[in-house]
Amino acid sequence: MAIRLSLLVGFSLLALAAPAGAEDKPIIAPRPDWVKPVSPAASVTGNEGAAVSMLLADQQVLFEPDRQTSYFASAIKIQTPQGLAAGNISLPWRPDTDTLKIHSLLIRRGDKVIDVLGSGQTFTVVRREPNLDSATLDGVLTANIQPEGLQVGDVLEFSASITSSDPTLKGHAEQVAGAWNQVPVGVAHLRMQWPSTMPIRLRQTQILPALKTVKSGAVASAELTLEQTKPFQPPKGAPTRFAVGRLIEATDFKDWSQISALMAPLYIKAAQIAPAGPLAAELARIKQASPSPKARAEAALALVQERVRYVALQLGTGNYVPADADTTWSRRFGDCKGKSALLVALLHGLDIEAEPVLVSTVLGDGLDERLPIVGLFDHVIVRATIAGRTYWLDGTRLGDSDLDRIPTPAFGWALPVQESLATLTRLVPTPLTAPQEDLAIRIDASAGLSLPAPTHIDWVYRGDAAMGLNLALSNLTPEVRDRSLKDFWKKNFDFVEVKTTNSAFDPKTGEMRITMDGTAKMDWSDNRYETDRTSVGYTADFTREPGAFHDAPFAVAYPYFSRTIETIVLPPGNTGFQVGTNADLDETIAGIAYRRKASLKGNVFTIEKTERSAAPEFAATEAAAAQARLRALGKEAVYLMEPAGYVRTRAERDAVLKETPTTATGLVDRGVLLMDDGRYDAAIEALTKAATLEPKNAWALANRGIARTWKGETTAAKADLDAAAAIDPKNFVMLHGRAFLASRTNDRAAAMAALNEAIALDPKDLYSLELRSSALWESGDYERALADADAYIALFPSAVQSYVLRANLYRRLGKPKEAEAQAGLLIKANPDMAYAHVAAARILSSFGKDAEALAEFDRALAIQPEAYIYLNRALSRPKADITGRSADLDAALKLDPKRFDALAARGDLQAETGDLPAAIASYTAAVKESPSDAGLLTARGILYSKSNQPVLADKDFAAARAAAKDATALNNMCWRKATAGIGLESALLDCNAALEKVPDSPAYLDSRGLVLLRLGKLDDAISDYDKVLAANAQMPTSLYGRAVAWSRKGDRARALKDHDLAVKIDPKVEQRFDEFGVKL
């Protein structure tokens, strides 16, 4: 490794200008008499294994009225072969301003001393302009030597001095030294000496001992020696002012205003425009183009930025003296000084207040704590004032076409160049009002969650990032640019297949926009989708080792502002999508304000996340809490939850079913889809093929067991589920299947055991919690069902169905206030979800709160009008509101003309109003859309019966019986006939068939009880109702039905007791029985 000696001995020397007789090669000369010799350390403690050891770093400075000399000496021990590179000594200096003298170069090898220069080896001098790649001309020469024969174990001693003087500074002296921070040093020494008549002031950083000035006759001096220094470790994450470390400053400037006054005449002279020259013509053109001062200033800035190339000029006195405006314009190139002088000249010519300003691009933070030193500044900009507003203009930038978009630069402090009374001015940007990066993602998953989703992404950059990206892309050929953009998108969104890309820069707004269109393969594993680039937090580490400035504040990326908006269009008609927990966020942590808000309106999900820094730093006292919070947030993602009963779209089904899977996984997926479609035979066939390919595939066996359960093949289903359990006793599909099978056979204990096991394996198994709470509800164990519903909501606060279940449970528990309150809690958890407002409306309607219910329906429609909302509002309106119900059904069918449940609801309304032909026509249209729906066929059969068309009625009843594949369908047929009072003997057969499949089912016994009641078989009806109420004492329909039976048997007391309890549990139960034509 190449180690530059000047860096090892301390802070790089300030190169001052123009001594008489400056040389273009180093002078070999003895050490100056004023230098005090310093002996190196024998070793550096704890540095034995390093490549080199710095035994001595000595710097001594002599200030004189017209010049200053910096002497430096070092002794380096070479400890490993890698350390030999330290012998490559390179000394840069400016021959126009500096005189370089070499005093000694020795190799000490034990007792032997080798004089490298005395042996005839010389320095090689080269002119390299090392900064040409950054458009800098500095005229630097470099003296280089590689001592011959250097060996491991040698000590290399070197001393040299540079004498500098600069007439521009008018005799002022300044120096920065003592920066012993990077490597351990055995002896670190600094001595400064000056005539006592010079008003030299000194300042050392806090971690150094205080310097004392000693006067001896006409000479003043200060000296500091440190032994065995360790590298300075700045506090992690602190602002740059805490990274200075060891440093000593010297200056004779009284204050900052003296520096400003020194520079002011240079810029006043340079900022003049010859009356009849080319630049004057440009000025006249700008004046003529617009009378607006702001537009004129923008034109002047554009001239300086776009038409004058930037080249740093540091030749001769170029370090401080700006080229005059006409010269810079004629050259068409200039440095920051010349460009600023040119801009000031133009602005003054336009009658705009403006002045140059000195800034430091590196040392600005904490500049106000430093001594006034010209060399601390490395850049010049312009402060302009227009209509009372300050603008900071930088001629070396590009593309600042709008003054209002130019941010205040983050230089910390600025020194206006004025003839008198100038002071440092704070230069800190205000928080950004527009994002630097603005990302908008739109994914259209309306065709189905499992299908490739058309995706469009806009990424807008503003500010310097926009300029840089535009410049980078502009330099590429179209083919390379397109490939680069595709690679960029693929790297950032690897789940999207990129189809097309584009990029465009808008010079009027300064925005760079890159766009991409493609298709996304969304990952809905675990029935949820992790939203893209919406997470906040990270593995923050704000810990610090003990040491200097341990309690320093932490720096913040400032100013900083980013925004991400993601929009996902979901499949319409699938209600119940939910936003996961912790989506909304509004916290300021470690100086960054994090804001996140998610909403679900209709089938459109939107989430917006912003991160914006409010200040440049935050206190160390906040670090521990900030670290903990950011780490916690970093582990949390925002999920969009798929509804438990998600129904795949037709397009999804077609996509899967048109394929012929050849793997067990593909066949299982096909089987599940066929099962969801109710095509159990085809599902069993696909799952059997999967099990044949992989006999130990528990998923295939478990799903086949469920398919056979739904088909009623309980023995075969049990065998499949047992086989799956033998392979994987923790397979959750198998446990769900056992619960289904036990429920079908009315084995509540077995169903509960399976669900308990599933929840024990995964307490966050929402599906099992939902199944168990429903099972407990059906069994009348309302307290435990309520506990499960509470647990579900705790895990998933936006779960609509759980609030509805909880409302029903509270009602059954005789707590109407708590039941009704679920509507408000539901809306609070899902304020932007239309489905939640619909569910809340149904809860309110069930308590007779019709006005409040209608208001919730209106809110749902305001979010997004959908057919199901109008349908539910029609079903919730009072029976007497024929006009309102009819209008709602018309609106639903206008949005979805083929929605069979809306067609059926219209048929029911038409039947109520006595228009049986129209009702039959509506049901016929519904049956056309769902020809195998036993419920629709039964309902139409009832209408045919009421219309005295018994043949058609019997035909529909027979078709319904054939379509009824399970006990649930049979029970629904029985209940429809019982409530209509039609086909009661047929209804009795339906109920008996259902009970054969699931003996002693309370729901099925309740249905048969009503059939028997209407058939006049009162004792049989009471017997069925007794069985129901023994299992669930809170079943309101069984209580009311038994009340009617007791009344008809003449037992008024028992009738009233059952009646009162039924109405207490469900206030509308009596109304419904009256509508059935069954009165007490």
From TrEMBL:
The keyword Signal applies. Pfam families: DUF3857, TPR_16. InterPro entries: DUF3857, Papain-like_cys_pep_sf, TPR-like_helical_dom_sf, TPR_rpt, Ycf3. Residues 1-22 form the signal peptide. TPR repeats lie at residues 664-697, 834-867, 900-933. SMART domains: TPR. Residues 67-231 form the DUF3857 domain. Keywords: Repeat, Signal, TPR repeat. This is DUF3857 domain-containing protein. It comes from Sphingomonas changbaiensis NBRC 104936.
